Amino acid sequence: MRIILITGISGSGKSVCLNALEDAGYFCVDNLPPTLLRALVDTRMQEGAANLAVAVDARSADSLAGLPADIKRLKDEGHDVKVLFLTAKTESLINRFSETRRSHPLSHRLRADQNPADRPTLSECILREREMLGSIEKLGHVIDTSGLSANKLRAWVKELVESEKAPLTLLFESFAFKFGVPLDADLVFDVRVLPNPYYDLALRPFSGRDEPVIAFLQAQPEATDLYADIRKFVEKWLPAFKNDNRSYLTVAIGCTGGQHRSVYMVEQLARHFQQTERVVLRHRELA
Q1: What is the residue-wise DSSP string for 1-66?
Q2: Burial call 217-236: b when 16+ CB within 10 Å, e when fewer
Q3: Is 117 annotated as a binding residue?
Q4: Per residue in 225-260, pLDDT tens?
Q5: Which terminus, N or C, of the chain has the lesser number of Cβ atoms within 10 Å?
Q6: 60 vs 183: CA distance, rounded Å
Q7: Alpha-carbon distance 221 to 229, whole Å?
Q8: Are the CB atoms for 54 and 29 separated by under 8 Å?
Q9: 207 known member of a binding site
Q10: Could you tell me the domains of the chain?
């Protein structure tokens, strides 16, 4: 059975992911206590189901400790188990809770002797949840949803879970340093040292996927050298990441605005590695 386990920080988009998977034909269960995961899998197997998506989070904090062992057993039994851990920057989470006017799930976990007026603040709840889920974060692929629209998140999830079965999926992501480094990055490269097409008024409206910007950067010896260095680094260490049983490796390329240089570099690297690897592209700042 193909099992997608969705977990992560409250407000980071788990419901959006579940909806996307349900649209893709998965049987979805939200807020399942981890102790019931094995029983659910057995039941769905008996019913002849092929795809299952389950969301687990801090609402089941008391039974999270056994989740890593359960995942290992399911994999040992031959199930295709993928874990997606959703997270976001604290300021993004606070904005989302403010917009929806929902309270954080941990704000209701009061001790019997605790005064309701002493409930933890939203920031305290988020910090506590990060601590509770720290060990779970290492089990799968991390997706940073800071600043992402629901539509873009749905597209990313669909792209990941519908990828071909391969030892490792290589993700190249462009981003703008002024908006922060992606939380899900495994390797980060800074291409701000390259000449910036933004300062050419004729090139400014284009992105690194458009021919005028491509021609401009390909004419720069620094761009050619930096591309070669990044490519060689990834080629050298990719086998080690595969041997570490990684399902995903995210290579983030950053420039100032995330429109020209980083987009160009991601496109060039993806084109090269697509010849031999399963590759996914993300351009975080492009509309």
Answers
A1: -EEEEEEE-TTSSHHHHHHHHHHTT-EEESS--GGGHHHHHHHHHHTT--EEEEE--GGGGGGGGG
A2: beeeeebeebbeebeeebee
A3: no
A4: 999 999 999 999 999 998 887 878 999 999 999 999
A5: C
A6: 24
A7: 12
A8: yes
A9: no
A10: 2-164 (3.40.50.300), 169-283 (no CATH)
